[in-house]
Amino acid sequence: RKFRNIPPGPPPLPIIGNLNILERPLHRFLQRMSKKHGNIFSLWFGSRLAIVVSSPSAYQECFTKNDIVLANRPRSLSGKHIFYNYTTVGSCSYGDHWRNLRRVTSLDVLSTQRVHSFWEIRRDETTRMIRDLSRGALGEFARVEMSSVFHDMTYNNMVRMIAGKRYYGDESGIKDVEEAKEFRETVAELLKLAGVSNKADYLPFLRWFDFQNLETKLKGINHRFDTFLNNLMQEQRSKKQRENTMIHHLINLQESQPQYYTDQIIKGLALAMLFAGTDSSAVTMEWSLSNLLNHPEALKKARDEIDTHVGQDRLLSESDLPKLPYLRKIILETLRLYPPAPMSIPHVASDDLTIGEFNVPRGTMVLINVWAMQRDPQVWPEPTSFKPERFDEDGLDKKLAAFGMGRRACPGEGMAMLSVGLTLGLLIQCFDWKRVSEEEIDMNEQNWFTLSKLVPLEGMCKARPIVNKLNLK
Ligand code: HEM
Predict the structure, then answer these.
(1) Contact yes or no for 287/334 (Cβ under 8 A)
(2) Whole-model pTM?
(3) Is the Cβ atom of 416 under 6 angstroms away from ligand 1?
(4) 358 forms bridges with which residues in the sheet?
(5) Is 469 a residue whose pLDDT tops 90?
(6) ipTM entry
């Protein structure tokens, strides 16, 4: 097709388009490109046109007046083989199936009431975390590596919520060590393969060769994970006593409305929760604590707030979070500077549309550079400084794009803010924190699927009196 008045961009080569110039991390590369070509610019991934949006006004336009037209997702090999042939909530395009999935997600999985019903799990996992951390940290500072602590805790939270299982962390807390090991290995492999940037998605002729052997690997890992999920579902079905797990609730609903709650939908939802809801929350905890170690004045302010409103006689709980606005501002400022999905999830235009002064043809992939927008000096003065106080301004949090906007915005925002707030709040309440040396925490990122720290966070923590008082050691 001949395209008129599409956004400007670098000249493409025949067949490969601009694939040869892409650099990692993609969000930084695309920010540099937007300085050269404008806040709405074009790139060619093979023969697929992609538009990169880095301006808040164009972003608004995308997800208000163009929201439905942009509610489709691109097709990819991982979507086909890992996400059940594009039928999971994050991977499928707009339509009746997606609407049903979003309804199930908001009502039966992530509603306020359902998330609240899993509070015991979050309390148990965070208490275990504090107990483990305090072991070497009674009376003196101990050096701790927090990246794996956050990872294991978030995964345990999620898998317990989905299926009632604990698969991560110290073996003493795991019932079936072999099963847990298999799950961990399968999930790690799954995440790795789903994040692989696959040239065959844009250069279809490469699929004939499958030179990275990717398609075969994707099929293999899908089979392993699917078998695992089938077994988990079987186990839940055979349990006489009903448990409070996501799979159990959905199996119950399947009995009365089998057309809406098929096995594939239930497995797809479990996969979507694992994919979208674990690493994103874990890295937010890690970036937040890293920011606090580099900004002791913010850490002190958060601690004073917690000491005033919760004190040292009982552990902070989720119902305290509304009384802790400064803690919330720390998390918002962290999400601004280090959005876990720096390029969000790609959208695809189902029809011709306009964005700003440009035409965007049907089939175009639309990428949002959340990372660049949240560092735009026009909207965020001193954009690279960590300043939680900036959110004193009413309504500024609405300008964040970290959770997306419109129909396909993140349905897990409430749960994420709860679990990050609870974990960070408890770490501040229960421990004194400092850096391992005078040197600032390295804040460089690597971008695989989520924006994670290049150097995993290490810090020094010392238990505060509450840990002794509540006998958490
Ligand atoms: C700090 C944590 C999180 C961040 C920053 C985040 C961010 C995002 C973003 C940017 C999107 C894409 C929005 C778009 O397409 O425009 C998304 C989608 C999604 N998120 Fe989250 N998320 C987080 C946590 C969670 C949690 C805890 C869950 C579930 C337990 C979750 C479930 C989902 C799902 C299912 C989608 C796909 C929605 C759809 O395509 O219709 N997320 N998230």
Answers:
(1) yes
(2) 0.97
(3) yes
(4) 355
(5) no
(6) 1.00
Helix, coil or strand: residue 461: strand
**Ligand 1 atom closest to Cα of 284?**
1
Check if 288 has its Cβ closer than 6 Å to any atom of ligand 1.
Answer: no
Q: How far is the CA of 412 from the centre of ligand 1 (A)?
A: 6
Indicate which residue's Cα is closest to atom 20 of ligand 1: 410
354 CA distance to ligand 1 centroid (A)? Answer: 26
- Name the DSSP class of 379: T
Say whether pLDDT at 347 is over 80.
yes
Protein residue with least CA distance to atom 3, ligand 1: 280
Q: Is the CB of residue 9 below 6 angstroms from any atom belonging to ligand 1?
A: no
Report whether residue 74 contacts ligand 1, using a CB cutoff of 6 Å: no
Please write down the HEC assignment for all residues of 124-192: HHHHHHHHHHHCCCCCCCEEEEHHHHHHHHHHHHHHHHHHCCCCCCCHHHCCCHHHHHHHHHHHHHHHH
The CB of 408 under 6 Å from ligand 1? The reply is yes
Please give the distance, rounded to the nearest whole angstrom, from the Cα atom of residue 81 to the centre of ligand 1.
21
Residue 430 labelled as part of a binding site: no
Query: Model confidence over 159-185: pLDDT tens digits?
Result: 999 999 999 998 888 999 999 999 999
413 touches 407 (CB < 8 A): no
Q: Which of 272, 271, 285 is nearest to 452 (CA)?
A: 285
**How does residue 447 score in pLDDT terms, banded at 50, 70 and 90?**
confident
For ligand 1, the distance from its centroid to the CA atom of residue 122, given in whole angstroms, is 19
State mean pLDDT over 242-249: 90
Helix (H) or strand (E) holding 353: strand 353-355
d(Cα 81, Cα 217) in Å, to the nearest integer? 10
Chain segment 360-400, per-residue pLDDT in tens: 999 999 999 999 999 999 999 999 999 999 999 999 999 99
Q: Is a pLDDT exceeding 90 seen at residue 196?
A: no
